[in-house]
Design a protein that fits this description.
Elements: H1 3-15, H2 19-35, H3 37-40, E1 44-46, H4 58-66, E2 70-76, E3 82-86, E4 93-95, E5 101-103, E6 107-108, E7 116-119, E8 123-125, E9 130-131, H5 137-142, E10 149-152, E11 159-160, E12 174-175
Parallel strand pairs: 1-2, 1-7, 7-10, 8-11, 10-12
Antiparallel strand pairs: 2-3, 3-6, 4-5, 8-9
Length: 176
């Protein structure tokens, strides 16, 4: 199955679930994420604001701050790139391109200081490969932090046997 077919398959699976079902399915995933030793021991965490069809990350943002973590979020700056901004609070978010909420805080440029990156994806495989939405934003961003521990989070129905990859695709260290 090529990437386009795989994206369509996962989107179809998502359409079969209600917002309430996705919300309920998010709870144990976030619980496992917050209990993960890499996350617990991290000082600086790259997270993201979820879209309605993704694992809900909003409670995790609050919990990470309560755990004393510096949380940074990606912000789209053009048709190819994202920058990182410091997340302060839920009230300090604004809707950016693609309808994704982004932090309005200060820019964060110390990519090497990020201990853990928590990354969304349409699908992940048993080799920890990630299939994104097709624009390459996260692959370009993650290429700037080769030593950061990368955790992909997704629903079980987003896990597949194998994802076709190329040399620009960034592999995760772990999938939750």
């Amino acid at each position: 199955m090529d990437k386009c077919e795989l994206r369509n398959l996962i989107r179809e699976r998502k359409r079969g679930l209600t917002a309430g079902e996705l919300e309920e399915m998010s709870i144990p995933i976030i619980r496992r994420l917050l209990a993960n030793p890499a996350v617990r021991n991290a000082g600086k965490v790259l997270m993201y604001c979820s879209l309605p069809d993704e694992v809900n990350t909003y409670n995790a943002l609050t919990k990470l701050k309560e755990m004393g973590k510096t949380v940074v979020l990606p912000r789209v700056i053009d048709h190819e790139n994202m920058e990182l901004t410091v997340y302060d609070c839920a009230d300090c978010l604004a809707v950016g391109p693609y309808g994704i909420k982004e932090a309005t805080g200060e820019t964060f440029s110390k990519y090497d200081d990020i201990d853990v990156a928590i990354i969304p994806g349409l699908a992940f495989d048993k080799y920890n490969n990630r299939l994104g939405r097709g624009k390459g934003y996260y692959d370009r961003l993650l290429a700037k932090m080769p030593h950061t521990y990368k955790i992909g989070i997704c629903f079980d129905f987003q896990k597949v046997d194998e994802i076709p990859t190329n040399n620009l695709d960034i592999c995760m260290n772990e999938i939750i």
